[in-house]
Design brief:
Blueprint lengths: L1 H19 L1 E12 L12 E9 L12 E7 L5 E9 L6 E7 L6 H20 L3 H8 L3 E8 L3 E9 L2 E10 L1
Antiparallel strand pairs: 1-4, 1-8, 2-3, 2-5, 5-6, 7-8
């Protein structure tokens, strides 16, 4: 019986230690102009995919995403809040991609392409070479990417395939 109580006490201490090493981050995404509101044929909704990776200049390929979320924005709902748990010691060197999904590809199909080809996709985006991005992502629209630390706030705005968009992504402890 004492052994059993010792095991339970040890597990409780491990759980408390693990909880104290983590920090809760609120991810707030808001839009004042959806990317799918111009075209007559569009749904007028933005089907979005937010992927976050740890980033290192020393590594040429990204690892598994540390956060991945699909969500929709419409004219009557243009903001969302998500919870993300990170290590307290790891508040910098992240990279996010915000993608507007125009196909039936799942995040499980988009993620590996981003991980393997992130450098090329970023270069295509920086050069506004949409045909180059299409080579990697197909019909999916890359609305933006940023390297970031927690806490921070980022504006993504511009024109993609003749449609204006404006998003704010905030990472707050």
């Amino acid at each position: 019986m004492r052994f059993f109580i010792f095991i339970i006490a040890s597990l409780s201490n491990i759980c408390l230690l693990a909880q104290s090493d983590t920090s809760s981050v609120k991810i707030m995404v808001a839009s004042t102009n959806l990317s799918e509101d111009l075209s007559v044929a569009s749904s007028k909704n933005d089907e979005l995919l937010l992927l976050i990776y740890e980033f290192s200049e020393k590594v040429d390929k990204l690892g598994e995403p540390v956060f991945i979320k699909s969500f929709d924005f419409r004219e009557d709902r243009m903001n969302a809040i998500f919870d993300w748990t990170i290590l307290k010691s790891k508040k910098e060197n992240y990279l996010f991609f915000l993608i507007e999904r125009d196909s039936d590809k799942s995040e499980l199909q988009v993620d590996p392409v981003l991980r393997i080809h992130s450098e090329s996709i970023i270069e295509c985006f920086d050069n506004r070479d949409y045909l180059c991005i299409e080579k990697y992502l197909g019909d999916e629209d890359l609305l933006g990417y940023k390297r970031f630390s927690v806490p921070s706030e980022h504006e993504l705005n511009g024109v993609y395939k003749l449609d204006r968009f404006n998003y704010t992504i905030t990472f707050q402890e």
